[in-house]
Amino acid sequence: MVLLVIVFAVVGARLLARNSQISDDLSGRVQPARVEGVRLQSALLDQETGVRGYVLTHSAQFLVPYTDGLTEEKQSAARLQPLISGNDRATADLAALRKAAAQWRADYAEPLVQHARQGRSTASDSALLDGSKQAFDRIRGLYAAEDSHLLADRVHSQAQLRHIEGERDAVFLAMLACFLVAALVLALLLRQIVGRPLNRLRDGALRVADGDFEGRIEPAGPADLRILAEAVEAMRGGLASALAEARDQRGRLTVQADELTAQAEELRRSNAELEQFAYVASHDLQEPLRKIASFCQLLEKRYRDKLDERGVQYIDFAVDGAKRMQILITDLLAFSRVGRTYDDRLPVRLDAVLEQALANLAGTLEESGAQVRRPAELPVTTGDRTLLTMVWQNLIGNAVKFRSPDRPPLITVDSADGPDGEHTFTVTDNGIGIPAEFSEKVFVIFQRLHSRDVYDGTGIGLAMCRKIVEHHGGRIAVDTSYTGGTRIRFTLPAAAVQAPAVPAADVPTSEGAQPA
Fold this sequence. Notes:
Elements: H1 2-57, H2 63-83, H3 88-118, H4 123-209, H5 223-283, H6 286-303, H7 309-337, E1 346-349, H8 350-360, H9 362-368, E2 371-373, E3 380-383, H10 385-401, E4 410-418, E5 422-429, H11 461-471, E6 476-478, E7 486-493
Parallel strand pairs: 2-4
Antiparallel strand pairs: 1-3, 4-5, 5-7, 6-7
Helix pairs in contact: 1-2, 1-3, 1-4, 3-4, 4-5, 6-7, 8-10, 10-11
């Protein structure tokens, strides 16, 4: 196709250039030359007419066409000369015409004008006029020959122009025919070289799309199609490998699902046993402890005067141990019930549950002289009211318990809207504080930083707070950057809808909400 374009472009350019050359020669040289020839003839005719009129009438006005004709002849000849440059015949015709005109003026025109100016008329003037007429007739013959030659040049140029135009049209038609044939040939070649391999590749891709991953796709055709076919074949091989691996994985997942089913069944059985243990711990185990404590107290009351100081001390140890064992069992049961017994998912107004926690701690707050500062309104979250009451009660109870001995407790509750649709809360006190190295240990169940002689409790309060907060989708930690006491920071998710006001009396008091 490129070769055809180049060949026809060269041929067409040459034809167009030749056509343009002949057209320019015809319009810029041949036709103007003929026009100037007519002007030259007119100038000669004016000269002959002027001389004849002047001789016959002796009127000076007849000399004006003669003198003007001379000027026009020179100008027309000057314009005609470059137009016929290179045309030997036209140049010879012009030279012969101008030579004959000059000879006519020298032999006849100038003598006749001179005689007429002198006012004398001789018998020879009539002969001169006859000779002038004959000489000028020869000039007319020369002009007619020149004009016929210029006309022949114009006719020849026009014939050449028509011939070139015919060749141009024929070349353009041939070009169109060749392009159509070339397009047909290229279409057939493309169908043979590209179309068939592409159809085979399409059929193979469709088989793969239909799920037939076993049939191999053979590369064929041009390099690009082979590369594409190899890529599709690599994709098919990858899919086949992935499918085989998926089948193996499905088999393994089936085995794992069976194992998980068995484990889930075992977990359900274990949970049932734990529920039974919790029931036993809350009833059967506490009954002996109550009996031990009761009979030890009766023993002390009845035989106190018969026992020495060490015996009384031993009885006190036994009673204290039984009571602490009851408290540990109660707190452990409360810890295990988080997320099982208490698991409501309702909108809760946190200011209402804070009011309930403060009401539960009213005696402790009044006895210690503690002051609690809180916002006018706390936001709404989604969760269980009983568990959230335990959080407030444990945090504020700890703030009162671990107060500084030299100043009354000051507890500040703050809240702020955090990112990602959650609320951040802080409980800050001016107590003895928590060292930074123990900021994680305090959230571990039964972990204590002080002995029972200094501060009572079981060490389960903050562990329960962490379990409750994380059960609600939040986080809790000690703010180690605060040095004026202890600051506990925790987050809770915002409620999707606003909760109705919950009266404080509707919030139950948890038996496990004991300060740590």
